[in-house]
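Reopening: Subtilisin-like protease SBT3.9 still failing for me.
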Amino acid sequence: MTFSVCNSNQNPMIKLGRSEVLEGKKAVLKVPKFSSRGPNSFTPEILKPDVAAPGVNILATFIPRSGDNGFKLQSGTSMATPHVSGIVALLKVAHPNWSPATIKSALVTTYLITNILTVRVAWNEDTYTSEIFLEGTGDKLADPFDFGGGICNPNGATDPGLVYDMDKDDYLNYLCSLGYSNDMVYNATTYLSSSKNSTAAGGIVCPKKVPSRLDLNLPSISIPNLKNSVSVKRTVTNVGNVNSIYKVLVKPPRNTAIKVSPHVLKFNAKAKKISFEVKITSTHQSSTKFTFGSLAWSDGKHFVRIPKQIDV
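Support: Ran it again with your exact input. Result attached.
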């Protein structure tokens, strides 16, 4: 019943009938050909993309044309981006004090793993469970260069358990690691007052010993050109139950050995942040291609997983 019909009737009536659920064929999750992919050519130590979201045949508003009423099925990264933006907005409302890095970590680490050995991906435990394939490649499975941490799980992201947070020092160290001079970093980090056009906050200079980009506190680990062994550091912040114990679960990339220290994290009212070290050793000396794995922390309720990409 349209509004015009209701408006023309002084005593409109609406009849509600029994709902009907129509089930079609189970869809296969695929990453389309147009989706942005890794590896990161500028800084391969940073895994890209971060996450994936729906972007194929999305009903979206459109410039009204004859016969379409201002709506149209659209496909593209421009359709996936609004999904992520909307989820981020909801997370910011639910957790006003979360930083951008915390929100990103919550999205990357909370997609559901139904089987850690086969690394199956799902929206969440209540809806859909399936492996992710590549469009147009038969049965070839997608990897973190296609979907990053996985498909966004809004419900899971509201309660991630642990997060990989970052502050201004992390971003500063990243800029310094790219080889920019102190003058350039100083100028880029000097804030000007919009009203008086004067310096409101002094710039920052690089530390004498610049930390490795591998130690940037991201919810992923990416090692380019691993020859022997390398150690990376990460710090997790507990945003779940105050008294929690997390144990590590590792799926090493092919031709590598992984050692995590410590392998158990114990959080309490005083210990809200804990750092750990991941030592990655090559077990295959001949040159191969990229291999993928994962590292996860679990307390029995949360499964905080980050992807790992190694170029052995």
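The chain has a mean pLDDT of 83. If you still see a failure, please send the error message rather than a screenshot.
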